[in-house]
Amino acid sequence: MEISEIRILMKYEFHRGATTRQAVGNINSVYPTQAVTQTTVAHWFKRFRSGDFDLSNQPRGRPEIKVDNDALKADVEADSSQSALELASKFGVAKSTILIHLKQINKVKKLDKWVPHELKDEHKQQRLDACLSLLSRNKADPFLHRIVTCDEKWIMYDNRKRSSQWLDPDEPPKHCPKRKVHQKKLMVTVWWSSYGVIHYDFMVPGTSITSDVYCSQLDDMMEKLAIKQAKMFNRLTPILLYDNARPHSAKNTVAKRQQLGLETLRHPPYSPDLAPTDYHFFQSLDNFLSGKNFTSSGAVKTAFQEFIDSRESVFYTKGLNVLPLKWQQCVDNMGGYFD
């Protein structure tokens, strides 16, 4: 007898109201050479009870679950000490899957922290050369007070969690939506100097930062710089410090910087440890947001403004004044990452 015919018999036994044990006995008594096990019948009865009466084979293995790399990157950068197993559990996937996605976002484990890239010798040399040059320049003509630095960051929200509830015996539990693997997120771009935040902008969901968007932000930043930090705007030439993302180095971006009379500070690739917005501003922001749950984009924006309002001026000065120490640590480590 074909397997498909055995399955038809199991379906018949289910519809006539037989138990798993009864179905096994009935089928095996008529077709002893095609014996079915209780495990097999239980499996099919479970499918029938769920309303699935398709007798064909289903694909084996777990359904593919994709990890949102932006969400993973944000989570890792919020706490770089998490293990791969902890991240896998948080995102509801296997450890092997999370390791694949960590590789896709250029994260490797070093000294119990996830760092952006496995540095090659050429990258270490670029970092070493840049830091030596910056140390020499700052010693001859201090310029930290002229730096305007920026970066962008995803902030995750709609991160509600299920929790136990104290209820009356006949009271149904209050509904709480299941946390999604692909959480909602907002991207914020922030520009700041040792005098404070100059400008920040939340991207419209579904849009991304292009060179045109970045040029528009440059114009907005310069307008606000003239109002908020007039001394730097009128007496000093601002020096931009940011990473090597494509929108930052596009031709029209370069032309816009030249039009505005802005200098760009040398910054080696794969170096968030040398970027004040990464190692200082966003790290403090992550600490501030830790443990907070947001159910709307408006709540995220309010929390971001609260973070800025809670910072004193020394916060910004400290973030930039530590740069020479970072450069020296990079030199001492021959261009490698440092703690």
Explain what you see:
- The longest helix has 20 residues, at 121-140.
- The relative contact order is 0.12.
- The protein has helices at residues 3-15, 20-30, 38-49, 69-78, 84-91, 95-104, 121-140, 211-228, 230-235, 246-249, 251-260, 276-289, 297-310, 313-321, 323-332, and strands at 108-110, 113-115, 147-157, 184-193, 196-202, 239-241, 263-264.
- It has three domains: 3-49; 69-115; 121-332, Nucleotidyltransferase, domain 5 (2-Layer Sandwich).
- The protein has 15 helices and seven strands.
- A hairpin with a 2-residue loop joins β1 and β2.
- With 339 residues, the chain is of the alpha/beta class.
- Mean pLDDT is 84; it is low at 161-168 and 173-181.
- The protein has a five-stranded mixed β-sheet with strand order 5-4-3-6-7. The chain has a two-stranded antiparallel ribbon with strand order 1-2.
Q: Which outline best applies?
A: elongated
> How many angstroms separate the termini?
68 Å
Integer-rounded radius of gyration: 29 Å
The succession of helices and strands, N to C, reads HHHHHHEEHEEEHHEHHEHHHH
SS field, number of helical segments: 15
Write the CATH architecture name of the largest domain. 2-Layer Sandwich
Number of domains: 3
The structural class is alpha/beta
Q: Write the CATH fold name of the largest domain.
A: Nucleotidyltransferase, domain 5
* The CATH C-level class name of the largest domain: Alpha Beta
Q: Mean of residue pLDDT?
A: 84
| % residues in beta strands | 5-15%
